[in-house]
Amino acid sequence: MKYDIIGDIHGCFDELIQLLSKLGYKKQNDIYVHPEGRHLAFVGDATDRGPKSLATLELLFKLQEAGQLTYSPGNHCNKLYRFMKGSNVQQTHGLETTVAEFKTLSGKEQNRVRRQYIRFYESFPVYSELDDGKLILVHAGIRADMIGKPINKSIITFAIYGDITGEKHPDGRPVRRDWAKKYAGSQTIIYGHTPVKEPRFINNTVNIDTGCVFGNKLTALRYPEMETVSVPSSMPYLEEKFTHFDG
User: Fold this and answer.
1) In what order do the strands lie in the sheet with 205-207?
2) Which residues contact 89 (CB under 8 A, 6 or more apart)?
3) What is the mean pLDDT of each run of 10 residues along the chain (247 residues)?
4) What is the three-class DSSP state of 17?
5) Which of 100, 94, 229, 245 is nearest to 179 (CA)?
6) How far apart are CA 77 and CA 13, in angstroms?
7) Please, which residues have CB within 8 angstroms of residue 129's CB and are 6 or more apart in sequence?
8) Is the peptide bond before 150 cis (omega within 30 degrees of 0)?
9) Can you tell me which residues the record assigns to a coiled coil (predicted)?
10) Nearest to residue 119, comparing CAs of 32, 176, 60, 178?
């Protein structure tokens, strides 16, 4: 199977459609298919912050129903899931934009989207092993010693939030260790979560969150070719949102 793995969308639906077109996907019966049978995969955080989170979700729902989707839920996915389940979550860090869209729907449509999203979220594992285990798809990262082990709280936290220290940056973002710099596993890990200006290839890992919602670009990694394809963002550029690594 050949994959096109797309980074964090965050409601940037127009850029997603542009990227699918650039990758060679054609719209058929409300979903996008590739003439060569390539499969779409996403590293999570499809919603929040951007202008069209619900349109993005509707496309993902249709891809899932058609059996054309692999998805690794992220921290924003988890927070939206808890909101949809009725938990009292803080509507901050972008969730408020998705909720605002959601509240414009009729009661009947809200119930449909709620049910579909809960089913969508619950259907995907915290990380996926693809290509006979040679490829790992995860939102924020995973250590080599976690792969294949029974899922526990520490694995879920690492996969969704990254290698967090418990400390906070001045703007409220959690401080994260650079787990990819120490990764020494044989499996290729594709992830997002931490916005970078260019896809970061290091130690058999690739970060493809190129900060579309922060004005940079939306990126896909083509596997097994290991080539990246990007489209520019239409959002305002926010330099302070990007992480700069020392290696």
Assistant:
1) 127-130, 135-138, 188-191, 205-207, 200-202
2) 79, 82, 83, 95
3) 98 98 95 96 98 98 96 98 96 95 98 98 98 98 97 97 86 84 97 97 98 98 98 97 81
4) helix
5) 245
6) 16
7) 135, 136, 147, 148, 187
8) no
9) none
10) 60
Alpha helix positions (H), the chain: 13-23, 53-65, 75-84, 95-103, 107-123, 153-161, 179-182
Residue with tokens 């963002």: 233
- Please give the pLDDT value at position 247: 56
145 vs 29, 55, 138, 204, 219, CA distance in Å? 42, 37, 15, 15, 28
What's the predicted TM-score (pTM) here? 0.96
Residue that has been written with the tokens 């060679």 in this structure:
24
Report yes or no: 86 and 40 within 8 Å, Cβ to Cβ.
no
Return the ∠ at Cα 16 (arms to 130 and 127), rounded to 5°: 25
On whether the CB atoms of residues 53 and 9 are closer than 8 A, the answer is no
Report the C-alpha gap between 186 and 134 in whole angstroms. Answer: 8
Residues making up the chain, counted from first to last: 247
The order of strands in the sheet holding 69-71 is 69-71, 39-42, 3-6, 217-223, 227-232
- What's residue 245's pLDDT? 83
Residue 74: beta bridge partners? none
Please count the other Cβ atoms lying within 10 Å of the Cβ belonging to residue 35: 8
Q: Are 24 and 34 in contact (CB under 8 A)?
A: yes
Give the pLDDT confidence score for residue 173 in this predicted structure: 73
